[in-house]
What we know:
It contains 8 helices and 11 strands. It is α/β, with parallel strands linked by helices and 240 residues long. The chain has a domain at 8-165: Carbamate kinase.
Amino acid sequence: MSDTKYKRVLLKLSGEAFSGKTAFGIDAPTIAKVAKQISNIANMGVEVATVIGAGNIWRGATAAKQGIDRVTADYAGMLATVINALSLQDALEKQGIVTRTLSAITIEQVAEPYLMRRAIRHLEKGRVVILAGGTGNPYMTTDTAAALRAIEIEAEVLLMSKNSVDGVYSADPRKDATAKKFEHLTYLDVLNKRLQVMDSTALSLCLENGLPIIVFDLQAPNSLERLVMGEHIGTLINDG
């Protein structure tokens, strides 16, 4: 086992990251690359749980604006996270990693029901745990699910991967060349500056429980390995 800085982490993956260069859906080679990074740190002895969004398939808030009932739209989004979770599970198992998918909504044919103690037990046995179905409640984002699950399983850090953005900026660096990257922020900095890191409910959970957040680009070479070894990349958010 390598001498890593973190022994248990929760990785938040955006659904968009699964679509690769396509506008929609699942790109198998892209998921394979994500699985490879996760398998690398799992093989280093790090206990890894992950929460996945579903923006590559479905967005509840967008669907609601188009006239679909918001609660119905959000439950459809939870099901979409299960599709992404199963795709990642398959890719990880192809890497030789023992994986368990746990869902906050009951779908026992393909995933175990989420129980905090069960998730922790899987992690202690060295299995990668994929947490699907969000929080199991409408009106809650997968960012909130990631913060909540990280606290429940006593993860040491919440790793927020962004799609081709290597940290938190003062503006969208893909649209504004003058955007400034922040190396470190406090939770209150993020709130006061209205930075688009995660929704306010998720950030408040992290603040109240002292859970550090690192925002980084998963596509950067060996980014997960470098993070768990303690290298400073991306943007660190904590209580200062």
